[in-house]
Design goal:
The structure is a single chain. The longest helix is centred in the C-terminal third of the chain and has 25 residues, at 411-435. By secondary structure, this protein is of the alpha+beta class. A six-stranded antiparallel sheet has the order 9-12-13-14-11-10, with no helix packed on it. The chain has a five-stranded mixed sheet with strand order 5-4-1-6-7, with helices on both faces. The protein has a three-stranded mixed sheet with strand order 3-2-8. The protein has helices at 2-10, 15-25, 29-41, 43-47, 63-71, 76-88, 98-108, 111-119, 121-125, 187-198, 225-233, 250-262, 291-307, 319-325, 335-341, 411-435, 457-475, 494-503; strands at residues 141-148, 153-155, 158-160, 163-169, 175-181, 213-216, 237-240, 289-290, 344-351, 357-359, 362-365, 376-381, 388-393, 399-405, 520-523, 530-533. The chain is flat.
Length: 540
């Protein structure tokens, strides 16, 4: 348009120029003439196009419109209403029609920008182009992750969704090690999966060895002190990726998606299975797998993935075949040494006593402790495995042996305690829910909330009386009034008699000062001391 305006100022503009511009822009020739007329009326727009470029009659998306799109999550109609309201208050020009606004947004914003303004960065990332890392050699880089299986399983009578922790080799897509945790995973899950990935002996392997680097996604379990110390001891570098960047560890994220689409969808208890009509998410007659059966099936699928599945990047080879065909030498470590490195240290030196080793307010004993009382030892343990610890010499670091809890409860006792705790929790939830059952009426206009549950005057009086009685009971002082003296026929020790005498008023005789039936009290002359005599005049 600037070129056409320049030709018009020079007097060289012809219909052919306008027709060529219309063909290039995909509009009619009359529209180009109209744009030129509008540009002549606003010379400033022709040289410095502002927020709304009127010199060619087309609305463009401004920063204000982008901000409103983000505020209203991509709702163009709401943006148009907001712009109209601002124009009515004199805060800007009237917006174009809604179809024109739609066309401008589709023309000036990319699909990723529109998705990001409507759904955030995660939605915008779906329209991005990602680069693929070059494939290196085996055990160069591993990726690790936790994933919650979308399958309900039976864990000792409780329905849970287990967690899977695994390490995968980025060069060959080989699953190096995997563990299943019935509840939420912890650093113990990471250490167990690491041992399964490194050891090449049965029941693990043949893949294994130590990696050069492990990528994690800033999970607290992978970055805990215990796991970090184990990686440092094994000379493995940990790459801590930024949070919420799954595309930076695409190998393990692709495995998480593959295990669901290729295996978990066919299992009973799959939570994302489409249901017909208004049927409940979980049918009443659904039979769930036990955690043992689920783990066995998952391990079978992992073996199939490593030995039979042929991903496209491997060109007709299975992950295990590609891993074994790689000539890169391996860094191996023995199972006993690996077990030592993947344990958490107890933190201080302890002394063997006749009760064994004291650790976390429990006594641990072992048959090897006989004759070693008084030796200084250090304790290493697997996190959350409180039933067993490993004991090492505090001076030389030599492994001495395992130790177990001295008075561990039986499985039946543990089951009974857990059942009692569950019953107490259910009772407490019912009690708390009863206090929250306060209902109010719906209101169409502002006003004081109206309680729906009626309360009679008699019920209110009884409740207030109970509260008053409880307040009086709290204010009572049981030691304010001294206790009464015991009956005369009771035989009381001298200490009680003296204590009772001190607590009674001055005009009340004590129990040991009252004459028994058939006796008389006489005074010894000159001494002031009282003594009791029997009926015959003999002292008792």
């Amino acid at each position: 348009m600037r070129r056409l305006l320049g030709l018009r100022r020079e007097g060289k503009l012809t219909t052919g120029h306008v027709r060529s511009a219309a063909d290039a822009l995909g509009v009619r020739e009359r529209a180009v003439w109209r744009w030129l007329a509008a540009a002549e009326q606003d010379k400033a727009a022709a040289t410095e196009p502002g927020e709304r470029t009127r010199y060619y009659g087309r609305f463009t998306v401004t920063p204000e419109v982008r901000a409103l799109l983000g505020l209203w999550r991509g709702n163009v109609a709401a943006v148009h209403r907001e712009l109209t309201a601002r124009a009515a208050r004199g805060e800007g020009e009237p917006p174009p029609s809604i179809p024109t606004l739609h066309r401008a947004i589709r023309r000036d914003l990319t699909a990723g920008e529109r998705a990001g303004l409507a759904g955030g960065e995660r939605e915008a990332r779906k329209h991005d182009v990602f680069l693929a890392r070059p494939r290196g050699w085996r055990n160069q880089v591993w990726e690790a992750d936790h994933v919650q299986a979308p399958v309900r399983v039976d864990v000792e009578g409780t329905v849970r969704r287990p967690w899977v922790t695994w390490f995968v080799d980025c060069a060959t897509n080989t699953i190096m090690g995997v563990v299943v945790t019935p509840a939420h995973p912890s650093r113990e899950s990471v250490l167990a999966a690491l041992r399964a990935a490194v050891v090449r002996e049965e029941p693990f392997g043949p893949q294994g060895g130590l990696p050069e680097k492990v990528r994690v996604d800033r999970g607290k379990d992978f970055l805990s002190k215990t796991v970090t110390a184990a990686f440092d001891a094994l000379d493995v570098r940990v790459e801590d990726l930024p949070a919420y960047t799954p595309h930076l560890k695409g190998t393990v994220e692709g495995l998480n998606r593959a295990v669901e689409s290729m295996f978990l969808t066919a299992l009973p208890g799959y939570v994302r299975q489409p249901r017909p009509g208004r049927r409940r998410t979980r049918p009443k007659d659904e039979v769930l797998l036990g955690v043992e059966d689920f783990t066995s099936r998952l391990l079978d699928w992992v073996a199939w993935w490593n030995t039979c599945h042929q991903p496209d990047p491997l060109r007709g080879r299975s992950p295990l075949e590609a891993w074994e065909a790689d000539p890169t030498p391996l860094r191996e470590i023995g199972a006993d040494e690996l077990w030592t490195f993947t344990l958490e240290d107890g933190g201080r030196v302890r002394v063997l006593s006749t009760s064994g080793v004291r650790f976390r307010n429990r006594d641990y004993v072992g048959a090897w402790m006989t004759g070693r009382t008084g030796e200084k030892v250090r304790v290493r343990f697997m996190p959350h495995h409180d039933h067993r610890i490993e004991v090492f010499d505090a001076t030389t670091g030599r492994y001495l042996g395992p130790a177990t809890v001295a008075d561990e409860a039986s499985p039946e006792q543990i089951t009974a305690v857990r059942a009692a705790r569950a019953a107490r929790g259910r009772r407490l939830r019912r009690d708390l829910a009863a206090t929250r059952q306060e209902r109010y009426g719906a209101q169409a206009r502002p006003g004081r909330p109206e309680r729906l549950k009626p309360l009679t005057a008699q019920e209110a009086g009884l409740e207030l009386a109970e509260e008053k009685t409880a307040d009086l009971a709290r204010l009572a002082l049981p030691d304010l009034i001294p206790p009464a003296a015991p009956p005369a026929e009771w035989r009381t020790p001298p200490s009680l008699a003296a204590r009772t005498r001190h607590s009674l008023p001055s005009d009340t005789p004590a129990a040991d000062e009252r004459p028994a039936p058939g006796t008389a009290a006489v005074s010894s002359p000159g001494t002031g001391a009282d003594s009791e005599t029997t009926g015959e005049g003999e002292p008792r």
